[in-house]
Records
---
Amino acid sequence: MTQKEINLEEQFQARIDRDESIEAKDWMPEKYRKTHIRQISQHAHSEIVGMLPEGNWITRAPSLRRKVALLAKVQDEAGHGLYLYSAAETLGITRDELTEQLHSGKAKYSSIFNYPALTWADMGAIGWLVDGAAIMNQVMLTRTSYGPYARAMVRICKEESFHQRQGYEIMLTLCKGTALQKELAQDALNRFWWPSLMMFGPKDDESPNTEQSVKWKIKRKTNDELRQQFVDQTVPQAEFLGLTVPDPALKWNEERGHYDFGDIDWDEFWQVVKGHGPCNKERIDARVKAWEEGEWVRDAAVTHAEKKDSRTEQKVA
Ligand code: BYC
């Protein structure tokens, strides 16, 4: 590194330490830019792939009210994906490149969306647990050091809290219903509990990116801190529903002031992250199909925009 680059890095770190927001045109270390492209695009892809398990239940929602709410939630997720792609584009990568990275498997998306949604109760569990975990992470990200990402997160968090409440309300209704409905709710919790804890990423001592990301205030809390916060918040909610969290080691620790919980199956986590989860292939196939079938729409939109621009130019001339 040259002396000039060292000075620039020091000035950059000083700005971060003063809690200044970094904007798109500001100087930033190449690794900061790359880390953001990686994280924001993973986040955007998660929103877009995350529409698939729920989209599958829109036609089977048990009432008009449930259908409308689920439809709105899935639509919000498309919007979140678009804000996030736009935030990533401010860092000098194109939408097409981002899409290509998802389709080729180069870019990751959240492991959670590689599990199937088998029953209506899964719509409750996803809203309650998956959106609950997402919010825990995203509230932290409203204060992340990169301005365009932080600002996108503010709006996203407002919408996510509705998503979480609609999920919990589904669970509450099922738990107050018949024995079979309660059984469905318990089964959904059993299947989604551990994958939800995995959403926060590997343990801190096995997370290659955490140390630098905390230093740059990309992450204000570590994976393990957020996971603990999620367990502490969610266990009383499960108790209120009258459901059992599927972890025999789960126990309130008076001394720590937190719940102790059992070991996560990290082999399963890495299998899913590396593309070998129950639905990885199905999810990517669905995205590639949608991309290919939508080509004519994109072409038409570009042609329309070009025509509009040339008409404006003619008028100005
Ligand atoms: N799944 O060093 P680490 C939502 C990867 S919610 C897959 O700790 P980092 C939604 C990680 O990318 C979900 N991969 O990484 C909710 C890294 O690999 P690379 C989206 C994972 O980035 C409801 C490697 O493991 N939320 O969208 O410091 C409905 C080592 O990890 C996972 C976000 O994306 C995982 N669970 O921390 C619809 C939030 N965990 O890239 C939609 C933004 C880790 O080095 N993202 N990996 O090869 C983050 O906050 C951080 O990226 C993470 C990971 C906490 C997830």
---
Amino acid sequence: GASSAHNKNDFLECLNLQFQKSNSESDSIYTPQNASYSSILQSSIQNLRPASNSRQRPLVIITPDHESQIQAAIYCSKKYGIQLNVRSGGHDYEGLSYTSQTPFIIVDMRNLRSISIDTEKNTAWVQTGATLGELYYTIAEKCKTLAFTAGVCSTVGVGGHFSGGGYGMMSRKHGFAADHIIDAKLIDANGQIHDRESMGEDLFWAIRGGGGTSFGIVVAFKVKLIVIPETVTVFNVTRTLDQNATQIVHRWQYVADKIDENLLIRLFLRSINSSNGKRTIGAFFTSLYLGPVDDLLPIMQEKFPELGLVKEDCTEMPWIESILFFAGFQGQSRDVLLNRTPVSAYFKGKSDYVKQPIPEYGLESIWKFLNEEDVNRAEFEFSPYGGIIDEISESEIPFPHRSGNIYMIHYVVSWSEEENAESKRHINWIRKLYGFMARYVSKSPRDAYFNYRDLDIGMNKIEGNTSYKQASVWGFKYFNNNFRRLVHIKNKVDPTNFFRNEQSIPPVSLW
Ligand code: FDA
């Protein structure tokens, strides 16, 4: 209404003034009147579904190339009561970095993406606007035996990914991205810039898995790099129902979390057309072994002969080539890792944790669900845990899903623009599936992975204060008992709830 238009003008005036004060160019401020506003807005939107449902567009997009511009954005949005959303890679499953139910602005970190690597100390400072692809590329340019453990998709942003966990193909050996953060640069709700020492261990703990959003704007993370062998081995083996997929998947559940931690066998399941034109289930075993093929084969022969892996299925390569392999860029130049434009889609995703193997008849019911959706629309990913994940305490960082979990399930259903009118059908399908799966997965709480954000599991109130009880509905699923400490820290560092969204930690006092 009129008052929000009024606010908007005052806000813009405030912003320009603050920029002038710090001698900043105002060409990093985009309003809808600006010709590049739409392309900037859309360029890193990975999931088109939230954007297509959203009635609000950001009043302003700011693409800071200096911290003072972030401070200006915080100062002015606080002054005029406008919500501030931060976007790094734009891969949020519910689009929370670029949509909102109330008037908002976006601070888009794209220009703050420098990466500096110290090959003596094996550390790196990574600005949050960098993508995983840029990080992997830059490390590989510097050194063949250094790497980092994080996600598979190269356009995912460091800002959201690191602050929520970060699982990848080396996680059984090296854990999550967040496990390796050793320092950070953060701007708080008062516009103050902190490093680890000045923010204190509580706040530093919170941003390593508790989501950056609730606590401030993370400008950069310092991480410990990991040492890897010069040669790794990858394989991708598919089994259909005729090839005993059900029995092999069933068996996988007894092997995947216990096998040598240098080996991670991830499993993708899709309904596909078989060569005779009939529907079948394709079980795609996609794996990384940190070592040569001759070491891998005896391990597979002893622990998982049912898969029938042979040498011809395997390829040895440097680690950076395995990044291309898993991201679907096999055979292409490494430069594709520098391409920041995501392959956008309309999708809905959900997650679950499995602590007891699912019986064969359970798997068969799951195949029925997969066959209900169109071919190649729906996919399950079974991501094995175990290895070092079992050895890290549940409260080490806010990401709590450690020992006791065999694997995480990621469900996703996607559709095209033409089909978007039918999005309800797909969303109902995945919700029904999720309801069915309750019997096979973790209970009280039903755990979920924060980085696979799902607003179905609970939300804050849009207007007014969210109670501890209300936020507990989703909070315990993502963070288990770490949720209480996150609330306590939020209450200390951002009591007015400046940094907020539909699933941010509420600042209520528990003590
Ligand atoms: P985006 O910019 O949308 O931010 C996500 C959230 O973090 C938002 O709430 C945002 O406000 C907040 N935020 C972002 N930058 C911030 C900053 N600098 N300071 C404070 N808050 C900030 N996960 C995984 O573990 N392993 C994987 O292999 C994959 N693969 C994958 C593939 C694809 C295609 C998608 C869409 C997603 C994944 N993910 C994943 C999930 C991914 O880890 C998750 O979506 C991250 O939050 C994305 O981070 P972005 O910075 O890209 O998102």
